[in-house]
Amino acid sequence: MSYNYDAIIIGAGHNGLVTAAFLAKAGKKVLVLERRQCLGGAAATEEFFPGFKFNTGAHDAGLLLPEIVSKLDLQKYGLEFIDSQVEACALQPDGTPLTLWRDVKKSQEEIAHFSKTDAVKFPQFCQHLEQLTKVLAGVRTSTPPPVKDLNFRDLLPWIKSGLQLKRLGKQDMMAFLKVLPMPAIQFLDEWFESDALKGAIGASGVTGSMQGPMASGTTFMMLYHAIGSSCGFRASKFVRGGMGQLSMALAKAAKQHGAEIKTGVEVKQIVVNEYQAQSVVLANGDELSAQAIISNADPRRTFFDLVGAPNLGPQFNRMVKNIRFRGTTAKMNFALSGLPKFKGVANPGSQLSGHIIICPSLEYLERAYDDAKYGTFSKQPSLDIVLPSVLDSMFAPEGQHVMSVTMQYAPYRLKSGDWDEQKEKLAEVIIKTISKYAPNFRKLILHQHLLTPLDFERDYGLTEGSIFHGQMGLDQLLLMRPVPGWGRYRTPVENLYLCGAGTHPGGGVTGAPGYNAAREVLKDLK
Amino acid sequence: MFSKKFANYFILRILLACNFEFFFEISMPIPTPFHLRTSVLCKSHEWRNWSGYLAAIKYGPTHDHEYYAIRNSAGLIDVNSLFKYEITGPDAALLVDRIITRDVSKCKVGQVLYTSWCDEAGKMIDDGTVQRLQENHFRITAADPSLRWFQDCGLGMAVNIENVSEKLCALALQGPNSRNILKEIFTGADLDSLKFFWLADGEIDGFPVTISRTGYTGDLGYELWVAPENALKLWDALMETGRGHGITAAGLDALDMVRIEAGLLLIEVDYISSMKALIEARKSSPFEAGLGWSVKLANKDFVGRKALLAEKEKGSRWNLVGLEVKWQDIERLFDAVDLPPLVAGTASRLAVPVYKKGKQIGQATSSTFSPLLKKYIALATLKTEYAEPGTKVNFEITVEFVRKQAEATVVQTPFFNPERKRSCPKSE
Fold it and tell me: Which of A450, B149, B377, B421 has its CA 20 to 30 A from that of B204?
């Protein structure tokens, strides 16, 4: 049978583009199909208010695999990182914020205002975190071993991680095994006493999860977000021109190697014949065939909407149906006429150049989760704010700013009402929360744009608004991601692969699922 | 090794502590809607827990009378314990086709199919009948609870799956006189033209009854489906009318013998549901369970098809066959210890080894002496190479505590297949 392409990739999210670039680089004939007009999926920069650019989804590329940047030579295609000197400015209700710097010594000085003992321990903590995350970094690029028919070759990449773990020494190895399933609050309580510090560091442990920091497995998430960081906070890197520039660079690299990328083309169906994926049917009725069909969409969308449950086994379907998605994140973007004046921020030029965190304590975060648990959005939410225009003039006209706010918790399932009706109320809560810390904020708003979990589902195709294509609970990781036994990017349908965040290692702008999927697809394509 | 033993011991302790409830449903069985009648008739007071319901093992001191009634006049059997599901909606036919191994498009409205259904690995979960009540309305009978499985199979389909096990009562009227009994009281359809594995709606004494020409006896017979409020009225009407036709309430012992004569499988005896099998080796494909004829691999997809295609290509390891044990051998073995042949008068569900040249080649899972055929017969699962009809094998038989072997011949089932099972007075 002759195919139109070697590989068709459904969805031009950053992972889809990574897969496309690596397949094209290996000489394969690749086509990428994106439903939206804009590339990058949730790693995109869009202009929905004239003169202002917004990171619609993610706003930090700190987790991107360095090997993707180097192997694809992304710098050549316009990717430029901006490292801010300040990692985070954690706002406090009583005024003085806690600023964490890339320079650990400077952070120590700041922490000392909150707790002298914490300040002393901080460098050791950073070192400890770095050691633990090094093991995870290796795991990110290894394909999980198969459940059945385990052979030595499939275990090889894991031996490396095993050795790395062993090299930590007995004490740290035990610490590593102990902390992975730990609640973030307990892990941080063992280190620190300052609520401000624990809140600032621990907030990343619940990203994208329907869980509070007192839940098991949140330490793992914290570590996952800290891979590659050496300053105690989550890994952070901004992209000049916005996250869209990363996706553009990936697209350019892919095109340079011969890949075709089409936007505004919706795939309606993956055609399965005798348990083999053969082609995709587009919204306009066209059918395109390929030897490998690779879906960047999340597993439920891929299997239920594109393949169709009746083409898959009931036992497999049951697992897909039971994947926990449960989106909890809302994203709000603002066009501002000036820089907000945050209370206690003496040096806005530097202090506001990193993440601005509103999570004064882990207790505060847990209470925010309580609202979500009972089906409403948090009345006092945890906010992760970035003002990319502070360091990058490409975002807004001179003197004006854009603000990108990731809000948690906004549960996909509401106890009463729906998101279209609650949207205004949520926007108001976010503005009020920010105004508490920056009283002049409301007056500066020129334009606002809110994405609720429902918007993420409708506009970005994220099931239940889950930004990670499925919660990254300990039971939905590794060889259990997306579902147990199918952690190797392949699916029960032959020639159909997954390359999105729903596969190992998971969500965030890492490019790792796409990178690993490309490697596995190439093994099969030969 | 040690740890495995320890783990097994530990599991055993847990199971003992909870009376093996994990494996067997040790709940108090409840009466069926026919219990007010059956309990009066059941002089033996012998009951068995059949899927949570009390089912009479035999009504009199022995089951012989009931056995002969099924074969010579009519037996009335309470089969209410069957699980019943109704599938409706625009995709109903699609779903049933996806569940079962047979082709639903070949099943017309009013027709019934006997079929098995499998898991994704092509291993049998259960077997039962599918009644097509309307174009998109099916009723499936099953031996085990199946709602979850049917729902899983129907994911993404426009169907409604309802467990009607308690909304619908079932009685089986089986035997050569069953048609004549029904003809006296059933109105709404002509039973003389109702073909084998077809059904008809009608009335008895003014209440609605669905009659299907199906059963578990391999004889002329019917199963009757009514609402619970009419259950006793149906029983009474049948017993009253049947009196002149030799009707007898029949229990499970008699049923077990006739179903072996008819070559019909019993779940958990002749094959083990893949949902309950503790180890892979205990699972069977329909090919291995002698139901290869019911697997339609062409023109349709169903759960397990991929695996069954591969099995068909590779060949099956096992095959379910009938065995006729040589009576002279049994006589000789008992005679050697000065005993007359002692074989149980009831069916045995105890698996016994089957040998060929001293090596075990399989096991007989159900066996019985057939009073009608005057033969000792068994259903056996044998390695495929020994499953050819006519093959001589050895059947283990214990004589005076010593294991002996009697010669047995592989035969095609059913052992007993009367013309009346399928015949229709009107169409001939």
Answer: B421
